[in-house]
């Protein structure tokens, strides 16, 4: 039985994290020896009596020899820092997870990663900015890291997938437990074009304390963290703080001063985060050579008739209201609305807000 499965068993004890795991490995020489150690020896190795008793109690219900089958059922692999696929940037940290659970695939390309995070209550502005910046980052060969949460996280993942790029989702639960549950289909898509990653074994339910730790690892996997939209109190700001502590660069997108949705971003900028308005600015600051954008990312889409083309020439990444399109094109509003509906079905345009459209 490989020692990694005993390592999984050890870290399944609540309270035994990276630091305590290293102490046990140092004291006993292997995870198996630590797992089988008597209560007194565990206490002598530095565990308090409560944790030592919890480990001994878990041995009665958890058999490490059954863990390979459990991982296979969850379609999850367990990586340790010695494995080539274990992210090098994460392995450098003093609190790197002794075991990393991965559903999907990690590649060398994921070293060119940027975390895109923000509020769960995203505005139309925040969603559009996320789509625009994420699409341009993916076109430059960047892997998008986020947390599978509602709002900005979900838009970042969805945009990366739509652009045929790579994206990694770091979870605060097991890789077989999707949270929020409505993102189950999104999670399956991410597995095909990237990976779901967690420091928690399969079967672990989402729990409040897990999410700050999740944010720490989002920052650790990336070269920099981009906060698109965040109010004054936001988990995205915690991710930004972790990034700064880890020596990563923090970027923030400015927003409106008339509401509270961008207060956190503005605070980050005041505190020294880099203000960005385009992916090119971020890529330059990270010294990432921007790859040639794919032709389809540069080319204006072509409609099926002159009416469609006339509207396409007036649209951009910024939302434009149908009334404005009617005035600018000289077309009746009924024609504009009917044509936009058809173009949306074709995937040429996207409705960013009621009656307001952007290029898809």
User: What distance lies between the first and last C-alpha atoms, to the nearest angstrom?
Assistant: 51 Å
Order of helices and strands: HHHHHHEHEEHEHEHEHEHEHEHHHEHHEE
The assigned CATH architecture of the largest domain is 3-Layer(aba) Sandwich
Helix share, percent: 40-55%
Please compute the radius of gyration using only Cα atoms. 24 Å
Mean pLDDT: 90
Q: What does the largest sheet look like?
A: 9 strands, mixed
- The 3D shape can be described as elongated
CATH class of the largest domain: Alpha Beta
Summarize the structure in words:
- With 360 residues, the protein is an alpha/beta fold.
- It has 3 domains: 1-73, Orthogonal Bundle (DNA polymerase, domain 1), CATH 1.10.150; 108-285, Rossmann fold; 300-359, Winged helix-like DNA-binding domain superfamily/Winged helix DNA-binding domain (Arc Repressor Mutant, subunit A, Orthogonal Bundle).
- The chain is 45% helix and 13% strand.
- It is built from 18 helices and 12 strands.
- The strands form 2 sheets. Strands 1-2-6-5-4-3-7-8-9 form a 9-stranded mixed sheet, with helices on both faces. The chain has a 3-stranded antiparallel sheet with strand order 10-12-11.
- Helix 8 (124-139) packs parallel to helix 9 and helix 17 (322-329) packs across helix 18 (333-346).
- The radius of gyration is 24 Å and the shape is elongated.
- The model is unreliable at 291-300 (pLDDT under 50).
């Amino acid at each position: 039985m490989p020692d990694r499965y005993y390592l999984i068993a050890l870290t399944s004890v609540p309270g035994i994290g990276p630091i305590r795991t290293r102490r046990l490995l140092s004291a006993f020489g292997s995870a198996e020896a630590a797992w089988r150690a008597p209560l007194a020896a565990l206490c002598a190795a530095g565990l308090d009596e409560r944790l030592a008793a919890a480990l001994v109690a878990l041995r009665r219900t958890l058999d490490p020899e059954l863990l390979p089958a459990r991982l296979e059922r969850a379609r999850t692999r367990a990586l340790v820092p010695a494995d080539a696929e274990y992210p090098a940037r994460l392995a450098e940290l003093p609190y790197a997870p002794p075991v990393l659970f991965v559903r999907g695939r990690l590649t060398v390309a994921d070293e060119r990663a940027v975390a895109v995070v923000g509020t769960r209550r995203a505005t139309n502005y925040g969603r559009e900015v996320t789509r625009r910046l994420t699409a341009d980052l993916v076109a430059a060969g960047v892997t998008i890291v986020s947390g599978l949460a509602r709002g900005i996280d979900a838009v970042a993942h969805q945009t990366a997938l739509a652009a045929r790029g790579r994206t990694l989702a770091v979870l605060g639960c097991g890789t077989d437990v999707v949270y929020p549950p409505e993102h189950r289909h999104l999670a399956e898509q991410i597995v095909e074009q990237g990976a779901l990653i967690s420091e928690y074994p399969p079967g672990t339910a989402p729990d409040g304390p897990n999410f700050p730790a999740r944010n720490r690892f989002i920052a650790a996997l990336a070269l920099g963290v981009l906060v698109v939209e965040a109010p004054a109190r936001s988990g995205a700001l915690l991710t930004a703080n972790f990034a700064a502590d880890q020596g990563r660069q923090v970027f923030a997108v400015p927003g409106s001063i008339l509401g509270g949705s961008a207060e956190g971003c503005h605070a980050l900028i005041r505190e020294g985060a880099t203000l960005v308005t385009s992916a090119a600015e971020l890529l330059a600051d990270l010294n990432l050579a921007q790859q040639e954008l794919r032709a389809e990312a540069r080319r204006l889409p072509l409609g099926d008739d002159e009416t469609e083309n006339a509207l396409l020439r007036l649209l951009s990444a910024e939302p434009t209201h149908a009334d404005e399109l009617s005035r600018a094109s000289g077309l009746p509003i009924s024609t504009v609305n009917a044509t936009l509906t058809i173009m949306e079905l074709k995937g040429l345009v996207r409705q960013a807000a009621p009656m307001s459209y952007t290029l898809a």
